[in-house]
Design goal:
D-Maltodextrin-Binding Protein, domain 2; six-stranded mixed β-sheet; alpha/beta; SBP_3_CS; Solute-binding_3/MltF_N; five-stranded mixed β-sheet; signal; globular; Amino acid ABC transporter; 271 residues; 38% helix
Length: 271
């Protein structure tokens, strides 16, 4: 039995609360591959919001809660090319750019859309991945919200500070509920507090596959898809160049598509 298929509303809420507690502790997760730099360990600290499968999410690996996903795979490659150890900070999505600007993290990889507003605040890498947006509803409402016209005037759940929040703001009559985690949005859908949710395509597919009673409708949000980029502190050209160099290599080797496929399978796995 798929473990997500067993989730009740209470269990989802409990997971959200536990995740929140973990973020308050600001725990770090280090990847393998230590490197020395003048006798000290050289690190690359990545900020992410690990509730976005298959990009980044929590998974029990060898009995230990681990942050995995294809954004994590990319970050590991960047760190390896730098001869550094990757340290992962799991943070609320809407705090990531502040953490980057303050220097508490070195890079942000978290399904980050390169909006004009973000470009003013931080430097952004080359685009490394593009994906569609999806409208998620309760199964009984699949036909009811099959077009974007039908979504007008509905109560829409979105992640705070995300591109999906901006999409929702452009929908006529939308009553928007912005929350920090995708699991919280799912809970809102299941408990009838929102009618629809706008979620990144691969993420939506993962949740729908693992949680009974939710479906993706035929409605397609209209958005200029600029893809996803990696955030770097303004002015750090050396790190920006290193990140872009790694992305160029990974794309030329076809690695990112491999990472996406593997992370999607891992997100759907019950083991």
């Amino acid at each position: 039995m798929n473990k997500w298929g067993k989730l009740s509303l209470g269990m989802i809420l409990a997971v959200g609360l536990l995740s929140g507690c973990g973020q308050n502790k600001n725990d770090d997760t280090a990847a393998t591959g230590n490197a020395t730099n003048g006798g000290a360990t050289k690190t690359l600290t990545m900020g992410t919001s690990a509730d976005f499968p298959p990009y980044e999410f929590h998974k029990v690996v060898d009995g230990k809660d681990t942050i995995v996903g294809f954004d994590i795979d990319i970050a590991k490659e960047i760190a390896a090319d730098m001869g550094a150890e990757l340290v992962i900070k799991d943070l609320p999505f809407d705090s990531l750019l502040n953490e980057l600007s303050s220097g508490r993290v070195d890079i942000v990889i978290s399904g980050l859309s390169p909006t004009e507003e973000r470009k003013k605040a931080v430097d952004l890498s080359d685009i490394y991945y593009k994906a569609e947006q999806a409208i998620v509803v309760r199964e009984a409402d699949k036909d009811k919200y099959a077009t974007m016209d039908a979504v007008k005037g509905t109560k829409i759940g979105v992640q705070t500070g995300s591109i999906q929040e901006e999409i929702a703001k452009g929908i006529e009559g939308a009553k928007i509920t912005s929350l920090g985690k995708i699991s919280e949005i799912v809970l809102q859908l299941q408990s009838n507090r929102v009618d629809t949710a706008i979620i990144e395509g691969p993420v939506a597919k993962s949740f729908v596959k693992n949680i009974p009673g939710l479906v993706i409708t035929d409605a397609k949000p209209e958005v200029e898809d600029d893809g996803y980029a990696i955030g770097i502190k303004k002015g750090n050209k050396e790190l920006l160049d290193q990140v872009n160099s790694t992305l160029t290599r990974l794309n030329s080797e076809g690695k990112i598509d491999e990472y996406v496929a593997a992370a999607s399978e891992l997100a759907d796995s019950t083991k």
